UniProtKB/TrEMBL annotation, chains A, B:
PANTHER family: 5-NITROIMIDAZOLE ANTIBIOTICS RESISTANCE PROTEIN, NIMA-FAMILY-RELATED PROTEIN-RELATED (PTHR34071), FLAVIN-NUCLEOTIDE-BINDING PROTEIN (PTHR34071:SF2). This is Nitroimidazol reductase NimA, pyridoxamine 5'-phosphate oxidase superfamily. InterPro entries: Pyridox_Oxase-rel (IPR024747), Split_barrel_FMN-bd (IPR012349). Residues 185-209 are annotated as: Disordered. Residues 200-209 have a biased composition (Pro residues).
Length: 209, 209
């Protein structure tokens, strides 16, 4: 991620790997809210943020039928979590603690209505657990306006950096502080919109987020 | 970002736009810690997370000379901030509040030593303000092992979504809660590494992060 040459756990391409690596991949994907989708348009790269959902070893993306980027073809889907800033004694070893998953696939347009429905449920439940069935599910018109893409998770890599800076021994001195500043994240107090009657509590699946 | 068709502020391509949009672009870039860099390798997209720094209308990336992806050529650099989860009364209108910047450029390898030095300072100061000059600056060997790429910010787009869900009027009912769950983020307590003498306070630029 940065100048750092600190050893990292690179799980590498998962094609020929076992259940542990696959679990690590799922964990990184499931912990995220947005992915960055890369595609090639007129020979040049395009990277866009978007939500997603996962069912087994398939990631699902969705969007408007009008979205130019939502087409079958080669994609790279990357999910990154930043866990900490790594302050070293030399700027060369400054780094970040992070977990990332990079997926390479040929995106497939989902045509089957049952798979589309399951994918949309997975996407909504990933973003906002407990919301599918609480909020109104899509109607015919909304479904017709929505494209769903499937991304196979077979070819992927997971990288993780944890721990303190990897300073050169000759740089270690009491005069310079080094360590990790953790990055924290969470959910704030739910803000009802103007149509929610005063005094209404958010439902449990929102309140306990 | 999601199914939502809620109106967004799309500042669009900035090439022919004024100072306000450029400020919006700088603000989104400056508020981030990592970008997602997209490039084309063997005809397929690759998206990788990495740190960055900005000087005026140039974004700088860096990494090891051994990194295959750090080459001059077409890139797309995207920075995304998630500000909130938007809970609507129909799943079709679920969304996220976010700010994103998408930059399209032909990356240039920086050869000039003065520009390389300034770029590395900008990258370190972006990640960890106050650290350049506190920690040891790069030596000859470290500089030789580092590639710096420059990305021109001329062609970029900024998108921002804020505010409540954009529900259809017929879905608005007292029975369903809708609103925004803010996403919060911050810095935790600095964790010194094992070589920092017990009782040492982090320096002000770390403590006040």
């Amino acid at each position: 991620m940065t100048l750092s040459t600190t050893p990292r756990t690179t799980l590498g391409r998962l094609r020929e790997r076992g259940a542990t690596d696959r679990t690590a991949l799922h964990d990184v994907l499931d912990a995220g809210l947005v992915c960055h989708v890369g595609l090639v348009r007129d020979g040049a790269p395009v990277v866009l943020p978007t939500g997603y959902g996962r069912i087994g070893d398939t990631l699902y993306l969705h969007g408007s039928t009008g979205a130019r980027w939502l087409r079958a073809g080669p994609v790279c889907v990357t999910v990154t979590h930043l866990d900490g800033l790594v302050y070293a004694r030399s700027v060369f070893h400054f780094s970040m603690n992070y977990r990332s998953a990079v997926v390479f696939a040929e995106a497939r347009t989902v045509a089957d209505e049952q798979e589309r429905w399951a994918a949309l449920e997975a996407i909504v439940e990933h973003l906002a657990p407990g919301s599918w069935g609480y909020a109104r599910v899509p109607n015919r018109r909304e479904l017709a306006a929505t494209v769903v893409l499937a991304v196979d998770l077979t070819e992927a890599s997971v990288k993780v950096r944890t721990g303190p800076p990897g300073d050169d021994p000759e740089d270690v001195t009491d005069a310079v502080w080094a360590g990790v500043v953790p990055l924290t994240g969470g959910y704030g107090t739910p803000q009802p919109d103007a149509h929610v009657p005063a005094g209404t509590e958010p439902p449990p699946h929102v309140r306990t987020r």
